[in-house]
Amino acid sequence: MSIAQLLSEYGYLAVFIGCLFEGETVLILAGFAAHEGYLSLPLVLLTALCGGTLGDQVFFLLGHRFGPQLIARFPRWQPAAERVSALLRRYHSGLIIGIRFMYGLRIVGPIMIGSSGIPIRRFVVLNLLGAALWATVVGGAGYAFGQSVQWLFAGASHYEAIAVISVIGAALLVAVLRHRWRRNR
């Protein structure tokens, strides 16, 4: 099975699942794949919007119901939880919209926001707005990266496979390093 077939069959599912959690790497790769014609950019953005919104909504509801217990159960979340609480007091709506752009707060953020007593309806609206902005910016960055690669390697189409493999390899390396860094922290 070729890379093109894999992307066309499982690309949108990978974007959705990746965006349920911290999906920046997956979304950038999907934007790049859309530029290369393997996926549709509007569908990538819509899938990322749905996955990002659903993921944060689930974490918000978990925080709404079990917030303090979850933070107590995972002590390594405590510094991030304190940071979110401080930011929430100062930048209520802006934090809800922008939490998915803040490194290391993608899961803890919605949990803490949920435990803060913010009405569910208000979170749904701001979460949807934030997810739309995030999907457009991050997915668009992947698409723009593809445009840059095309411009840099114009006339060198035989390097396309090398570029795709390099991007996937770099993304996997970043994901592994992030995982190891979090585990060691």
Structural features, described:
The structure is a single chain. The protein has 185 residues and is mainly alpha-helical. The chain has one domain (3-184). Helices cover 81% and strands 0% of the residues. It is built from eight helices and no strands. Helix 2 packs antiparallel against helix 3 and helix 2 (24-35) packs antiparallel against helix 8. The N and C termini lie far apart (39 Å). The mean pLDDT is 84. It comes from Jeongeupia naejangsanensis.
Outline: elongated
The residue-averaged pLDDT reads: 84
Number of separate strands: 0
Question: What helical percentage do the residues reach?
Answer: over 70%
Properties at a glance:
185 residues; 0% strand; mainly alpha; VTT_dom; transmembrane helix; DedA_domain
Topology of this protein?
Elements: H1 3-20, H2 24-35, H3 41-73, H4 78-90, H5 92-98, H6 108-115, H7 120-152, H8 160-184
